[in-house]
């Protein structure tokens, strides 16, 4: 295991000093939350989806985050151009298959995107990872109907077919690459009462992938920071409105000792 409180802290400091530009093609629900989370951790977010400009924008960015939460055909055209460009320039791609399994359109678009430009990291909840791996998983729109451990076999399969890191989020976040497995047990159940906390995890993963090309490490670091900031926020006040605000503050003020004291990584 190469991930530790020190390796997490090194990456947080890299993000804070380098402020990598993160190109997000994401959904209308979370554009604001995820941009604020990226700023709070120290990255520089931009939400850019027009097909006319995404290729140019990818070329000045340090990572591309693609999230299919509120799909339409123009978004899909932008995603395809951006992902192809990121692949050809060797920039990290992080993919969030929000709600895949719910509709034929989401399934088809996800398949097309994965075939066109396999991402470096995929982050979804258990239902999404199972659906993406071709299993007939049940999904309740964008929320999972399974615990994250139910998707471990699916994640291994997806990881080996695509050659990428797969993250299953939930009470325990699993980070899978081939036979390698890391588990982060940080977080708080109240996080499921704020929309787009998963999308935020994906966006933060983009920031860590921008400064660390060991994508297993980058994904593990992102999920650890996500969970620890969620715990710190939930301890301040146990209600969703303030959790959203306190989560951003916890990211911004995060210290090495908070990581050392709280990290639950195995
Ligand atoms: N039951 C739980 N206990 C503790 N932490 C949790 C729990 N569920 C989720 N989390 C935390 O919330 C984060 C987001 O995970 P979740 O699986 O809820 O995403 P998601 O379903 O994709 O969300 P969304 O689609 O709303 O963005 C996890 O990485 C974890 O830190
Ligand atoms: C609620 C919702 N609907 C489409 S995307 C999204 C954000 C959480 O995934
Ligand atoms: Mg999600």
In short:
The protein has 266 residues and is an alpha/beta fold. It is built from eleven helices and ten strands. A hairpin with a 2-residue loop joins strand 9 (173-177) and strand 10 (180-184).
Our measurement of the CA-to-CA distance between the termini, rounded to an integer number of angstroms, reads 8 Å
Number of domain units: 1
Overall body shape? globular
Rg, Cα atoms, Å: 17 Å
Percent of sequence in beta strands: 15-25%
How is the topology of this model organized?
Blueprint: H1 5-18, E1 21-25, H2 31-41, E2 44-47, H3 54-60, E3 63-67, H4 73-89, E4 93-96, H5 104-116, E5 121-125, H6 126-132, E6 139-140, E7 143-144, H7 152-162, E8 165-169, E9 173-177, E10 180-184, H8 197-211, H9 215-236, H10 240-253, H11 256-262
Parallel strand pairs: 1-2, 1-3, 3-4, 4-5, 5-8
Antiparallel strand pairs: 6-7, 8-9, 9-10
Bound molecules: adenosine-5'-triphosphate, 2-(4-methyl-thiazol-5-yl)-ethanol (TZE) and magnesium ion.
Catalytic activity: 5-(2-hydroxyethyl)-4-methylthiazole + ATP = 4-methyl-5-(2-phosphooxyethyl)-thiazole + ADP + H(+)
InterPro entries: Hyethyz_kinase, Ribokinase-like
Binding site for substrate: 47, 196
